[in-house]
Amino acid sequence: MTSESRTLLGNIAPATSLDPSRRQDARPGTYVVVLEPRGRGVVPIGRLGELTLVAGTYLYVGSALGPGGVAARCRHHERLAARPHWHLDYLRPYCRILGCWVAHGRERREHVWARALGALPEAGWPLAGFGASDCDCPAHLIWHPEPPSTTLFEATLGEGAWSRKPP
């Protein structure tokens, strides 16, 4: 990390967790976490490398097919990890969650969703391989200039609903 990036991010207070009393459906499914950076600069993402945060919105696509389903995974992403496990755990202290888009079911939609969101006009892949260590997707983190609307998600992903809607 450069001294400039430390300066840019050094005075940003880490994002706080969302209200832990929020409970979501524990069924399995696929989700998109909509994130807004709290500042600009370079963030180390474990062994993957560095992500340069810029203004806009970040969309993290994942699936949760095991015990606890989408509810448990979204609760994990709402908390700040003391010991980061997933790539998103490294990014979370520098972003706040605006919302979560969810589709329930055992079908693994994350790869199709990541590619569809990455193909949107003006969208981009900010760090190759982010969240995609186990697949051939460019990444499961997509940058978009603004938070997606319900209409955009419905048209692009074909299914799902907000489990936590952006303000």
Write the layout of secondary structure elements.
Elements lengths: L2 H8 L18 E9 L3 E5 L3 E5 L3 E8 L4 H10 L8 H5 L3 E10 L5 H9 L22 E4 L5 H8 L3 E4 L3
Characteristics:
single chain; alpha+beta; globular
Instruction: List the secondary-structure elements in sequence, H or E.
Output: HEEEEHHEHEHE
Structural class call reads alpha+beta
Which outline best applies?
globular
How large is the share of residues in beta strands? 25-35%
Indicate the mean pLDDT: 83
Instruction: Please state the CA-atom Rg, rounded to the nearest Å.
Output: 15 Å
How many β-strands, per DSSP? 7
What helical percentage do the residues reach? Answer: 10-25%
Sheet with most strands: 5 strands, antiparallel
Termini gap: 33 Å
Q: Are there runs of 5+ residues with pLDDT below 50, and where?
A: 1-24
Name the strands of the widest sheet in spatial order: 6-4-1-5-7
> What's the helix count?
5
What's the gist of this structure?
By secondary structure, the protein is an alpha+beta fold. Helices cover 24% and strands 27% of the residues.
